Amino acid sequence: MTITAVTVHPAIGIARVGNSPDEFFIGPERLWAPPDPVGGFKDARSRVKRQAARFRLYAHHDDGTVTELTAADADIAWTVHVANRKAIIRNPGAEGMLIDPGARTLAGPGQRATFDGGKIRFPGHSEVDVPLGEARTDEDGHLVVLGGFGTSASPGNAPITNFLDNEGWFDDVSDGPVTAHLTVRASGEEFDATGAWVIVAPPKFAPQIDSVITLYDLLFQLGASQAWLSGPATPSYTHDIHPILERARTTSAVTNTGSAHAWPEPVYAPEARRRIFGRLRDPAGRGRGTMPLLVAGELTGIQYAVMKAWRDDDFVRDWAGPPVPSARLTPGELDRAALAACVGDTLFPGVEAGGILGAPIADPLNYVGAADPMRLDHTRLVPGAVTEFMPLPWQADYVHCGHEWWPVPRPNKVVQPGTNARLDWDRDARDFVAMTTAWHTLGFVVRRGNTYVEVRG
């Protein structure tokens, strides 16, 4: 059995900023296994824990099998290069506005490297250091990437006037390539692994709920538009239909819909299927559906086709209870779990990646193609390119998009523990200034029994 190639997974990993200097948790690696860090999503001093992205190596063998490679199997050197291009893309020709600490290489387990050294300089002001986080390797040789601390500032105290572009500001989100060189001990063979990409995004304040249309759904549809991927011929109720219904149901925990989306599982009855489908927005723009309850967004074409097949009784009745996390971690599971926890509802501009002037994450030219549809092409992108069109500072859009744009990462209405009372999630940070200074005091929506409540401590 010969190794023919090595790949890094997840192909796109998601880290998130937080102001806790030491505590963090690993982002989703399996479907149906949302993060649940010990002690919650804030540390003992109520500082937001960062979400880390963990990367693994997988060997592809000539007999078609795929196995993970760890520090027990190979000598591994990881390289990460993140940057923040937000200010430079908004000020063409301006010097000193690219926050780029350079590449960091970590060889062997138990290593640590900080993304320090990146600086920004606005005309008329002194240069400012902007740390973008750090990378570590664990005892098994996996790479763990942590982003910045949620910092945003204006050296000249410029006002924030809109949700997207604010001159004189910087923040510490970032993105960039993740690569690895390894020597397999058993054979002495050396490989340059096919690399991944890491995106450092804002916090997700309802981390145990997923959006109705996820970034995975969006990129799957993108792949289908290029004939790289295709939807299921006959949808599975458990694996294709239930996830859409469940996400619609749980999203009510962060909106003002209450129990509007409620139904017993499995939904097999013809009348219930017709009634629910009749409320869906048609991605072709036909009809007057109101689901999903978002300001801008409808199911992808593949999602809509899945639900139409369900309505028409052309699906597999395979319900045996709620899906459980897979026992075995696979490259595909890692790829999907990371993206399924992100927003795909609308990229206007989005939360983790997107943009209005441009959306590199949604450009098929930026992907490897049919051989690996969810993997970004390193020859097409530079560090910082995926997030360069995102809001500056990131907190500005969390003020502007408070009405059902993307209510999972940025909740609208939240339930208080022990009551049915719903309050505005942003009740203590309603303007741009307050959000940039008090974002870390806002609550996380977490599961308690059969419901989701806001926890602030």
UniProtKB/TrEMBL annotation:
Pfam families: LodA_C (PF18417), LodA_N (PF17990). Residues 9-89, 96-200 form the L-Lysine epsilon oxidase N-terminal domain. It comes from the Bacteria. Residues 299-412 form the L-lysine epsilon oxidase C-terminal domain. This is L-lysine 6-oxidase.
